[in-house]
Amino acid sequence: MKKKLKTKRVVLSIVCLILGFMIAYSYRLTESGKSSRQITDSQWEKNLSLRNELNEQREKNRDLQEELNKRQEMVRDFETQLANEAQVYFNLAEDAEKYRMFLGKVKVKGAGVKVTLADGEYNPDEPNINNYLVHEHHVYKVINELYISGASAIAINGQRLSHNSYILCDGPVITVDGYQHPAPFEITAIGEPKVLSAALNITGGIKDQLVNDQIIFSLQEQSDITLDPVVGKK
């Protein structure tokens, strides 16, 4: 009887031990699940917060990108405006240089032609010596034809002409803006040599007219001509 009672106690102890172990294990699982859920919730809230911040940052970046695009467009507009203004100023400077050249205020260099007009040979049978001398109207014909043909600058015996130059004839000499020059008269002009030569040599043109007036006419194309400013002007 005692032996059976002792056996029952042993069995009951084992059962209680197992039951206690199971209860402890179950408690640990429960606590672990709670802790796991708490960490997960915390991480979820943190992720949500980070996601919201990221969305806000993206929105800010989008706004900044739009602002940057507007600024860049403004810069391009300014650059275009400056380029247009620079072209305008360049054109004005170019025009001013042309006007200074036309007015004879600057030294100019370039290709062109040299026309020489000399008095005709003495003819004892010709009672009027003026019939074979170079006169101002002969010089004017050459100058006008050169300007019409595109000459940008002209000089007579090295004296530069301007827009208001005048030429007077005084016997065997001509007066250009108050300065006298004896024959022969060298008329140098800067421009396209072929064009200027063709204009003067045209049949029935200036050359033929001067030769008919017994003027000795010669023409040379030159690749390098330098004309100084108008006398007394800079």
From TrEMBL:
InterPro entries: DUF881. It holds the Pfam family DUF881. Residues 47-81 form a coiled coil. Gene3D superfamilies: Protein of unknown function DUF881 (3.30.70.1880). It comes from the Bacteria. Keywords: Coiled coil. Belongs to the UPF0749 family. This is Uncharacterized conserved protein YlxW, UPF0749 family. It comes from Mesobacillus persicus.
